[in-house]
Amino acid sequence: MQPLGVTVITAMVGAVHTPIHDKAGELVLPAGSYYQSVRETINDQRKGLKKPGSQGVDVAAKNLVNDIVAGRAGLVWRGGTATLVRYLSWLLPSGLFEHIVNGGRGLREVRVEEKQ
Question: pLDDT, tens digit, for every residue of 37-48?
Fold first, then answer.
């Protein structure tokens, strides 16, 4: 796109507290769901309670607009913990990085009941 005079910016946005969580409500799972054992963890994520270091939407948006106005191009990391994630994704092997990022999401606690 550069030969056409178009600047491309890719926003890698970290944790941002948005109003979407205000409408999440309680998670209702069907009886026998594999996810019953982690229902509370999922509910906390739906409500935005599992976003350490989240940044206000106004701050994140202002930073992105400033990047665009300043003519930045390529990858731009904004939002809460985005800088930390940027460096960890560069420094750590992908398996270890995914283990850290997904550690608090309850995946290891999912109980699969055998059907009888």
Answer: 888 888 888 888
